[in-house]
Amino acid sequence: RRGFAAALLDVGGRELALRADLAGRSALHYAAWVGDACVVDALLHAGADPGALDSWSRSAAHVAAARGQVQLARDLAVRCPLSAGQRDAFGHRVADILSLTSGSRVAVQERRGISWKELFHDFVALSRPVLVRGGCALLPAMSSWAEPARLAAKLGGASLSAGPVPYGPGCSAVTLPAFLASAEAPSRGPRPYAFDVSAARRCPELLADSELMPCSEWAGFAAYVRQPQFGLGFRGAGAPMHLHHAALNALFVGSKRWLLLPPEVSFWAANASEAWASSARCAELRAQGALLEIRQHAGDLLFVPEGWGHATVLEEYAVGVGQEFVPLSSLSS
């Protein structure tokens, strides 16, 4: 990769190494974000400035640290200690970020009563997962979705996508009453999970009940916010290991177990979540200390950072929503 990058830089010259996008991010920022030390080295050799700051006052070292690229962040900080010692727009120096993110590889942090600003500055901007106990306990969905019959009435005749693996083979459209009835029938296979991104769009009342964050707050921190995904199932159902943009996950009924993997070891799994959670691979990751596990109860809000692998296993009948977004601090924005 270094040779390929060097060949491109031979054509584009130092101007290419120094060029920045509208957010002030250079190629060095992006190489640091993905942890590509070979490309970082080629860019520095071509004259890239390790002290250049983006619109969030972040150098490439800040970016690498926020993504958990520890050694790369340290190497870049040595090349430009002045910018590494500067606080970014979220109030963090490179050393601060490395200290905070190192703990995120050991356990999911738990908090109570934090503000949206604290959530975005101390967790979203640093790609740190956090479980906010009681973080969605005041939303209307806590009471209006508690009874399956009331929830079915809100959905009306709207169908949901359900199957053993969300959006995978074997999924079919089913109404909530039919899904609830099927759960009572004996089954030898994986439990089906209803996971649908269009339910909130087709049923505005669901969206009103479960609005995780006011639009005014999103506007200050997110470049893109996706429609919430509605999830419902019984004990043993869930989503297999997967990864995507950053997401807030609210649980309104029941409890579920989360299994998280940091970006450097995350992957996609195609088998049902309960089967994967009891697999040899899962046990191996747990033994290595790479797998983080936490239990979410009704009323809790979980933030999963961009690129973090995650799987869920429901411990009982559970209902919640997940909402993906792209933070302005992310280089994906």
How would you describe the overall organization of this protein?
This protein is α+β, with helices and mostly antiparallel strands. It has 2 domains: 1-101, Alpha Horseshoe (Serine Threonine Protein Phosphatase 5, Tetratricopeptide repeat), CATH 1.25.40.20; 109-330, Sandwich (Jelly Rolls), CATH 2.60.120. Helix content is 38%, strand content 21%. The protein is built from 16 helices and 13 strands. The protein has helices at residues 2-18, 27-34, 37-45, 60-66, 70-79, 81-84, 94-104, 116-124, 141-144, 148-155, 176-184, 199-202, 204-209, 215-221, 273-277, 280-288, and strands at 109-112, 130-133, 159-163, 172-175, 193-196, 222-225, 229-233, 246-253, 255-261, 292-297, 301-304, 309-314, 318-327. The strands form 2 sheets. Strands 1, 2, 3, 4, 5, 6, 7, 8, 11 and 13 form a 10-stranded mixed sheet that branches. Strands 10-9-12 form a 3-stranded antiparallel sheet. Helix 1 packs across helix 3. The longest helix has 17 residues, at 2-18. The protein is elongated, with a radius of gyration of 22 Å. The model has no long low-confidence stretch (mean pLDDT 89).
